Amino acid sequence: MPKQSFAFESGGPKRLVIEWKGMFKNMTIKVDGVQVGLIPDQKSLVAGKEMKLSDGSKLKVQLISSFSGSELQVLRNGKPLPGSETSPESRVKTAAYVLYFLAALGIIAGTVSIFVDSKILGILGVGWYNILYGAAYLVLGLLTQRNSIGALVLSVVVFSVDALSSILLGAAKGYEPSVYGLLMRVFFLIPLVQGIRALMEIRKSRK
C-alpha cells in the first residue's frame, strides 16, 4: 500500500499520513493518527478534496496532470506542504535530477556517436559535442542542488542552444527533425522552468 507522510512546517514532525491502494483507490488522509478524509477513487482525487482541520486550517489533496506527468498536490491553506511533489524544494530537486540525467545522456550518446555511425543518432543530431553539453549539465546540476537560480537560468539557455544545434546539425546531414525528439526536449524543459519559479518562491519566502 503506497504511503506518504508530511510535516506541516519544514523540519517539523510528520503529522499528515496519506495512504491508498492500487490506482489511488480508497485514499485515507490522517492527521496525528486521526482520519480526516477519504477519497474513494482516482476520479475523485482529480477533482480534489478539501478538508478543514481541528486547528482551523484547510487541507486540500488533488491529483494534478500536465504534459510532464501527474503529481499529488497537497496544500495547507493554499501552500504546498514541505516535501510534497509540488513544493518548491521538490521542484528544485527534480530540476537537478533532470540535469544529471541530461549529463549522463549527453556523455553516453556523444561517446557512442564517435565510434558508431548511426542513422538514429544522426536524426536526433547527436555528435561528439554532446559530451561537452553533458559535462556542462553535470556542473549546473550540482549548482542547482545548492539553490543557484543563475545555474538554472543558464541551464535553460544551454538546453535551448543544445536543442537548436542538434536540429540544425541534423538538418545539415539531410535528416528531418524528429517529432519524438522535439517532444522529449519539451518534456525536459518544463521541470527546469518550474525549478526557476520554485527558487524564486524560496527566495521570496526567506525574505
What is shown here, in short?
The chain is an alpha+beta fold and 207 residues long. The protein has helices at residues 42-47, 88-115, 119-123, 129-145, 149-172, 179-206, and strands at 3-6, 16-21, 25-31, 34-39, 49-52, 58-66, 69-76, 79-80. Helix 2 (88-115) packs antiparallel against helix 6 (179-206).
Question: Can you tell me about this structure?
Answer:
With 207 residues, the protein is of the alpha+beta class. It has two domains: 3-79, Lipocalin; 89-206. The mean pLDDT is 87. It is 52% helix and 22% strand.
Helices and strands in order:
Layout: E1 3-6, E2 16-21, E3 25-31, E4 34-39, H1 42-47, E5 49-52, E6 58-66, E7 69-76, E8 79-80, H2 88-115, H3 119-123, H4 129-145, H5 149-172, H6 179-206
Antiparallel strand pairs: 1-2, 2-3, 3-4, 5-6, 6-7, 7-8
Quaternary organization = single chain
Fraction in beta strands: 15-25%
- Please trace the helix and strand order, writing H or E for each element: EEEEHEEEEHHHHH
What's the average pLDDT?
Answer: 87
Approximate shape: elongated
Helix/strand/pairing category: alpha+beta
| Individual helix count | 6
Distance between the termini: 40 Å
Instruction: Give the total of domains.
Output: 2
Strand arrangement in the largest pleated sheet: 1-2-3-4
Instruction: Indicate the low-confidence ranges by residue numbers.
Output: none
Taking all Cα atoms into account, the compactness measure Rg is: 21 Å
Helical fraction equals 40-55%
